[in-house]
Specification:
The complex is a heterodimer of chains A (289) and B (481).
Chain A: E1 9-11, E2 13-15, E3 18-20, E4 27-31, E5 37-42, H1 46-65, H2 68-84, H3 86-94, H4 101-121, H5 125-129, E6 131-132, E7 139-147, E8 150-155, H6 162-174, E9 177-181, H7 188-196, E10 207-209, H8 214-223, E11 229-233, H9 236-244, H10 246-249, E12 252-256, E13 278-286
Parallel strand pairs in A: 1-5, 8-9, 8-11, 9-10, 11-12
Antiparallel strand pairs in A: 2-3, 4-5, 6-7, 7-13
Chain B: E1 25-26, E2 28-30, E3 33-35, E4 42-46, E5 53-58, H1 62-79, H2 84-100, H3 102-113, H4 117-136, E6 157-161, H5 167-180, E7 184-188, H6 195-206, E8 214-216, H7 221-228, E9 235-239, H8 242-252, E10 258-262, E11 268-271, H9 277-289, E12 301-305, H10 309-321, H11 341-356, E13 360-363, E14 378-381, H12 388-391, E15 398-404, H13 407-415, E16 422-426, H14 430-439, E17 444-447, E18 466-467, H15 472-476
The chains are: A alpha/beta (289), B alpha/beta (481).
Amino acid sequence: MSDRLEVTKTWKLFIGGAFLRTESGRSVAYIDGSGKCVGHLCAASRKDFREAVEAAQSAQPTWADSSGYLRSQILYRLAEMVEGRRNDFVEALRLKGNRGKGAAEREVAATIDRVVCFAGWCDKIDSVMGNRNAVAGPYYNFSVPEPVGVVAVVDGSDAPLLGLASLILPALAVGCAVVAIPNESEPIPALLLAEVCPTADIPKGVFNLLTGSHLELLEVVASHREVDAVVAAVEIKARATLEAGRAENMKRVKCIDPSIDFLGDPSLTSPAVFQSVIDIKTIWHPHST
Amino acid sequence: MSDSARVPWEYSPAPESLKVSIESEHGIFIDGDFAPARSARTFPTINPATEETLSLIADAGAEDVDRAVSAARKAFKRWSRTAPLERGKYLFRIARRIQERARELAVLETIDCGKPIRESRDTDLPLVSQHFFHHAGWCDKLRYAIPGNSDPAPLGVCAQVIPWNFPLLMAAWKIAPALACGNTVVLKPAETTSLTALRLAEILREVELPPGVVNIITGAGETGRALVEHGDVDKVAFTGSTSVGKRIAAACAGTGKRLTLELGGKSPNIIFADAAIDQAVEGIVSGIFFNQGEVCCAGSRVLVEESVLAEVIEKLKRRMHQLRLGDPLDKNTDVGAINSATQLQTIRQYLDIGTAEGCKRFDTNCELPTRGFWCRPTLFTGVQPAATIAREEIFGPVACVMSFRTTDEAIERANNSNYGLSAGVWTDKGARAYEVAKRLKAGVVWCNTFNEFDAASPFGGYKESGFGREGGRAGLAAYVR
């Protein structure tokens, strides 16, 4: 053991492409499995969340307008960047000492593969979710999926990297912008993912990440009127809080069981996941003059 | 407006000749039988064009709701296991019987709800039977319908609450997909328009639909609340106002009930200078005066490119003079009665607010019948986007005309609403039509047409106009797990 004093950092919030301290000034020590303080975490506030939503709102139209092919390449680039930092992610997953090396490696590998899977979805969602409708009149009528807008993601699973990735990827692939709240007790793998995003060319504001108390932030997410949809892996009580938020602005809310097998459950990569982050638009046009 | 533009002659009356008998009292339909409500309460349903009482309707209480849900639960076991093609054959039968009894149902609809017979006969009823016919064919094809769900299973008991503007059509939109997916139903029609839903119950008996698969209970808001809050309901589907929709959303939170909501709108109808103006004017008229404007997707915000604003307003006014308001049972009638005294009161309040906020009001000053609830087709010009009448849903024959200069401005104004149900765009340029259609935040976009509906075409809103779709492939997802 050397005498050198380690440089520990405060992991900041990721808002609009920048790493920012919480405006609330609150931070908590992050204690690893051996009881040692390895850094500090921000406890995001309502105002931080609001700013993240604003950043997401301003980034979303351009992200949605970019071609599926472009989004596809950017997400694939994200997979490349995570692959390049595999060891960092494995270490991050092992900080708390609650999973073995093999489990951590499996989660990182599965995360990379999930990113690749959704990179491949971007330019196929319209074909699978949309269609022409055979109406009984002289109209060309078709239904297309459109991104719902700003999606808040809450990861209450015990897969701090793969859980979060599985929840944000459908939204990103379809052209939504995301404000994510990662695993409360183990947010470091998610924060590392945020650090990778800028180098993967994910545009500023398309993905935002806020660490903090779920109890506090769930209510903030639910009541926020500019959030268009919520996708969460949370327990039943949190689900009631989030669903009550629909009464605010009719935000779409999708909650999944946090104990789902994130490694293997086929529903996580099926097109059904897009239902909660799209609106179907139906366009009519006469085809005879 | 010159007098020469007025129609210089009067049409002879052309009343619908079919007489429909209406029982003096109606019970609720539970487990295949009609019976008085256990609550022993009734309320009158009236003809809004004459204010005459048509019948007494049972006011279902909590015990009745419970019996209806139990009947649906009991029936679910067999119905959900009925071979899909057999389920489909029941729906085909329903569609056929509706076609055969279409005249009767159209007349009854018009008498109870106030809409012109031309609309109930030519729009509502054809769409009602089509909705059952279309969904009949889905029953045995569900595993191909929903991407990522190759083994769709029914949800269970569906509580469905519907409005008074398209009474039978909304019943069809709710019941047909629910049954097609193997669910059972408790439906509550709006309290002012129960008659056609109850007549549909007769048809369900005629076609020998198993008892309890569809139950129809009547009553007002309290009945609806008891139904959606019932503990043994698996799915709630509601069409109506955004304020009630929000209450339902709050009530369903954390219950595990599936929810779809089709709520209000303040839909823009955008007219570009290069549009075929005469057709666009027809589109404005059908957009806002169809069904007296009592349409959730009504084109109530008319956005006109500045260079043709004067022309559009002039032509629109001339066209409004040709609208015939009066007896809904007259085949020449374009504008029927407002559904209820309450709704008429709401509309009048908005007319007063529009005037008070400095908007310029125009109506044709046409004669109104002495009895019944009537509102002249009305146009407001000089409307600022922030005006109350430009933001809030009026649900009446009231159009707000505003102007724009650029495509960007048109889209910004169109999207500047908490609602996002429908939109219209009128232009001769294909690229512009699709650019605008793409950028509009609305669930249904009509290019060079308006207020078109079809069983195969998904309908439903963005933003506070609700979530979930009705019709087509997308509509099925709401009724399976």
